[in-house]
Amino acid sequence: MTSAVPFDRFDLKILERLQREGRCSNVDLANAVGLSPSPCLLRTKRMQAVGLIRSYGADIALEKLGDHVVVFSEITLGSHTPQDFRKFEESAAKHEEIIECYNVSGGYDYLLKIVAPGIGYFQALMDKMLEDDMGIERFASRIVLRQPLNRREYPLNIIASRKRWE
Question: What residues does the HTH asnC-type domain cover (predicted)?
Fold first, then answer.
């Protein structure tokens, strides 16, 4: 766990707004959160400087680009030394189809989110990953049939709450 960055309610409002609309102007952002433009810009730049705001991006409608498949793959490594984890992670990073990679606890070591143009492409990718000797002992994959919920915004009020429900 990393240590939390200090913030106040205005910072939280800025973050919430930028999650929903990253392209808004500083003036619009300031109006939305109840600050004047200059302090709003200073706060936004400070949060960027400390790494709280990592980047800005567009939400792409993949279905409008063409057919694709989203697959979650559970990966189990054959060996569990720090070098084995590092080797797998470095190898996985070379495959741009792997858009998310989580080292998890439980019955397997990694959960990958993979986006590919089709099932055949996905299978060829997995074959290549096995051939590349990334340390994979076994994998199981789940093909996404539909996505009934897709929240792009984190629950900032809950995460940043001073109350802890632990």
Answer: 7-68
